[in-house]
Structures are given as structure tokens and as C-alpha cells.
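Much of what follows relies on a compact textual record of a protein's fold. With that in mind, consider the following protein and its fold in C-alpha cell form.
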Amino acid sequence: MGSAKIIVYKKILEKLFTQELDPGESINRRDLAEELMVSISPVNEAMAMLETEGIVQTIPRKGTFVSMLDWRDLMEILELRVAIESQAARIYSGEILREQKDQLLRIAKEVDDESKNYIDHVYSDIIFHYSLMELSGNRHLMNVFSSVITKSFLLVKRVMIDEGVADGNAPHVDLINELMDANPSSITDIFYKNLFAGKQYLLNNKNQQPLKGRIKSSSLDYVLSIMKGIKE
């Protein structure tokens, strides 16, 4: 049953990344079960995972819907990832990281493989960051990380689509090498550079419109001030 749940989970993510499902769109659980030739149980389990991550929401007597997206969600989640991944790195830096260096570099090279399609790249990237987080041995950091990692990729992808820009990525091999030589005070800057690489369009285009399909009314100026605060 566990494998069926993961199959359903990945299929829904694929539909989201390819825009087969859009923010605010309803998801019929029984139709999805029929499409994937599984029972309703793994569909419900996959939906529970996605709800925990804030990717879908279920409204009683109305159904399950893809969550609406907001610029503030993107910025706050990236900001949170910098904080928790940096703290985890302070725990595993040193001997723990040195012992795992070769394995991490192998995973990093897979993420940096430009021949991968976007979906495979996302899965590789998630595995890479999970592998780093697990080295900390901190269950509470892992729980917070698990609740935001997938949604952060979905939000970035949606911004790319809506704004017609290409996402950029700092080489993950460089991240490992920089962490090997890092002192605690420089770790936050290292993760900021990695997570915000290629996303300067968020700062450069102040006249940008909100994400399409958005129902909230947060100000882009507010978001820009958050990013400038991080950089300072």
C-alpha cells in the first residue's frame, strides 16, 4: 500500500508541475483512483501527505482543491528553508559531513545533470536536500523541512511559468565543497546563495503582477523588502 500511495503522490505532483492541474482546481479522488488503477485508499493517503505540505486542501462537503498560490508563500518558504537548512548544517558540519562527503557529491552530481527533465531534476534536488537534513539527526527540523520542501519547488515553477523566466540553480557540488570549508557564521550565506540562485527576477522587476489565480492581495513591495532584508 505504501508504494501505491507514493505512485499517486508523484502523479499528482507531475500534474501540478506540468499545469495539468492549476491552483484552485478541484481533484476528484475517485476519478484519480480509476485513472491510476488503484483503490481509493492510497489516493486518500497521498492527499493527506499533500495537505500536510499545504499543496492541496479539502473543504468538507465540497471536495479537494489545489491550494491557491501567493508571492508571500514563495518568499516566506524560501526564507524558512534558508533558516532550517542552515541550522541543520551547523549540526552536521565537521566530522559528520566529512564522513558523508563522497556519497553527497554523487547525489549532487545527479542533481546538476542537465540532461534530466524538470520532474526528475526536482526529485533529485529534493533527495539531495533531504540527505543533508537527515545528517543533523534533528527530527523536529526534519518535520518542518518535510512540510515545505515540495511546495517551494511548485511555487518556483509557477513563478517561472507566469513570468516567462527560466529558473537558475547554483551547482550542488559547489554547495557541498563550500560547506566542507565553512565556519558557522558563513553557513547562512552559503544556503542563501544556493536557494536564491537564478531568482533575481523577484528583485529586479518591481512592477511584477501577482501570481495568476491568486486570491490573496499581498504587496510585491512587501515581498521585495523581505528579500532585501535577508541580503542585508
User: Anything to note?
Assistant: The radius of gyration is 18 Å.
